[in-house]
Amino acid sequence: MKKTISFAILHFSVAFSITYLLTGSIVIGGAIALLEPAVNTVVFYFHDKVWKNIESKQAHSVAIAAEPAHLAN
Questions:
Q1: How far apart, in Å, do the first and last CA atoms of the chain sit?
Q2: DUF2061 domain location, by residue (predicted)?
Q3: Residue 12 gets which letter from DSSP?
Q4: Model pTM?
Q5: Secondary structure (3-state) at 53
Q6: Is the pLDDT of residue 72 over 60?
Q7: In this model, does residue 70 exceed pLDDT 80?
Q8: How large is the angle between the packed helices 26-72 and 2-23, nearest 10 degrees?
């Protein structure tokens, strides 16, 4: 959990710093620093679901491909 918190602080800091350097606005930097990680969290959730679905289909395909070899023995 400490590593997760550490990464979150780093992520917020980078998002704030880049936005502040580009805009010169503390308010916009702060808003982006809060908004961007929140959006990334939601996007990651759906990305992970799609990825697990792809892995599941691949595992199923491998199992089906291996099945005839298993029956031949």
A1: 49
A2: 1-52
A3: H
A4: 0.59
A5: helix
A6: no
A7: no
A8: 130
